[in-house]
């Protein structure tokens, strides 16, 4: 991702490391390590882990992801669940902030400025998604379908949830083919949830083919349910207060960069699946 929106280390370097933790409740979920801390990730209901199954697939997907981001886990629907075809989930972190202490209190203080920047990010999303299609073509050997893709429209559909400890918003995109039928469009929708989990900032994504408003509602409800399941099995960490002087004159765009990077990868993956099927 080439957003030129660095300053991530500066953005969070002033956050003091402190804890206000509740004991983790018993629960299921695989453990992933984020910044030296264990995070439990229960699988979304009815979906199964798909990373770590095929090395070549993992490499191809990783090649689409900006270097600033790291996958924690990816989930797909079993082939027997026809109703969930075209739907998927994943969780990511930003490499340069994954060791920073960001609890629910910390995030609450950062939330409003983060929200304001996302609301102004549509043009940035368009530009980054356009770059992603070219990146996908280079990352997939012997593939010509990615070359035929262009981004025709991306729209931030708005916020669907805001709690003291999370933010959720939805983005939709039309992808038009240059070859064949130029009027053909593949619509995709992705719901993103930004949430601190056990003192680490996590990005959760639920995405789907966008055939009707029901698909949008599904992504929003699904990622919300996944957030709740994750929070239920991890300790609650308040985190430090944010000194507002840290942010004077500094763009708070690292968070936005992480969101854009995740959407770039997710939408590229959806297009790849659609075109090669």
Structure characterization notes:
With 277 residues, the protein is an alpha+beta fold. It is built from 6 helices and 9 strands. It has one domain (18-276). Helices cover 33% and strands 28% of the residues. The strands form 2 sheets. A 7-stranded antiparallel β-sheet has the order 3-4-5-9-8-7-6. The two termini are 27 Å apart.
Give a brief outline of the structure.
The protein is of the alpha+beta class and 277 residues long.
SS class: alpha+beta
Strand content: 25-35%
User: Which stretches are low in confidence, meaning pLDDT under 50 for 5 or more residues running?
Assistant: 1-27, 136-150, 246-251
Say how many strands there are: 9
List the main descriptive attributes of the protein structure presented here.
single chain; 277 residues; alpha+beta; 7-stranded antiparallel β-sheet; two-stranded antiparallel ribbon; 9 strands; 28% strand; globular; disordered N terminus
């Amino acid at each position: 991702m080439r957003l030129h929106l660095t300053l991530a280390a500066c953005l969070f370097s002033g956050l003091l490391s402190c804890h206000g933790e509740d004991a983790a409740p018993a629960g299921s979920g695989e453990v992933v390590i984020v910044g030296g801390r264990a995070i439990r990730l229960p699988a979304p209901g009815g979906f199964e882990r798909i990373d770590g199954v095929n090395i070549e697939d993992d490499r191809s997907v990783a090649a689409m992801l900006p270097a600033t981001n790291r996958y924690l886990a990816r989930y797909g629907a079993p082939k027997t669940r026809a109703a969930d075809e075209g739907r998927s989930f994943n969780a990511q972190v930003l490499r340069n902030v994954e060791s920073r202490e960001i609890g629910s209190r910390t995030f609450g203080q950062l939330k409003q400025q983060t929200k304001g920047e996302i609301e102004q990010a549509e043009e940035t999303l368009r530009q980054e998604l356009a770059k992603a299609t070219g990146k996908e073509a280079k990352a997939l050997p012997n593939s010509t379908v990615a070359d035929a893709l262009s981004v025709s429209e991306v729209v931030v559909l708005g916020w669907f949830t805001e709690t003291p400890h999370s933010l959720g918003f939805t983005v939709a995109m039309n992808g038009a083919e240059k070859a064949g039928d130029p009027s053909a469009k593949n619509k995709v929708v992705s719901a993103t949830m930004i949430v601190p989990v056990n003192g680490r900032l996590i990005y959760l994504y639920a995405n789907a083919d966008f055939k009707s408003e029901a698909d949008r509602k599904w992504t929003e409800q699904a990622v919300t349910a996944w957030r709740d399941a994750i929070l239920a099995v991890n300790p609650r960490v308040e985190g430090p207060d944010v000194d507002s002087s840290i942010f004077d004159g500094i763009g708070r765009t690292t968070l936005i960069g992480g969101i854009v990077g995740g959407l770039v990868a997710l939408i590229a993956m959806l297009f790849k699946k659609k075109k090669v099927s």
